[in-house]
Amino acid sequence: MEIFSNSSAQVVMISTTVLLIVLMVTLAIRERRISKARFLEGLIWLQKLRNILSLVQQHRGLSNGYVCGDHSLSLRILPLQTQINLQRMALSNHGTWIANNPDWAAIQEHWQRLSTGFEKLDSNNNLEQHSKLISSILYLIDDCAEQHQLYEVKDQDQRSIRYLWQDLLVTAENVGQARAIGTGVAATGRCTSVNRIRLSYLHQAISNVSQQNHDVRNAALNNLLDLLTQKVIVDSPSVSANDYFDVATLALEEVLVRFDETLAELKQLIASKSFI
Q1: Which three-class secondary structure state does DSSP give residue 149?
Q2: Is residue 4 part of a domain?
Q3: Transmembrane segments in this chain: where (predicted)?
């Protein structure tokens, strides 16, 4: 009987151990699936927020050129506003995370006021209001990354992907500011001392990042820096608002292309069986 009892106890112990192992493996697999789903959803949000960010940045540049005197830019502003409104509605309908987000509600209210009232603002107020709105979108992007735990995700070089929004999007915003201020300068044909200081600072910031970070280095960015030095930050600017805006846009889009390519690579990596 004692032998039987010991044998039974061993069977129970082994069975319990096996069950615990199976349970732990099952929970680990389930957590892995949940994490992958959360990461993928976060990357989708990141892409959508990046898209609307770049559109609002465009609106800042074009509207600044407009209030500085180049009213021909209105032909580009109205279609852009329509595009932003469509993106805004699509974002609101994408999911409950953003639909119930008070920061997103504040962004929408700010955009509605600004898009219908920018013509009444002077250049400084227009730039300030747009930059505040863009800062709010960047903050929401950071909140999205935290909510979906994207800080835990690493790219193929084993780097935390936080550089996507902390480096690439910040650099894009510096270029966006240079585009907006420079478009206004080109529209007026005059670079004030204040704008010269602003543009010189942005020129240096963009140049430093371009030299140090291969993720943002590109020929279009160099063309913008050269144009700023030669035809914008001078006594008599000699470039049209439309032409300057387009050169700056090419530089900004090159940075965003790098962002989009990395995002696409990450989606494939996370979807693969080898991830985590």
Answers
A1: coil
A2: no
A3: 12-29
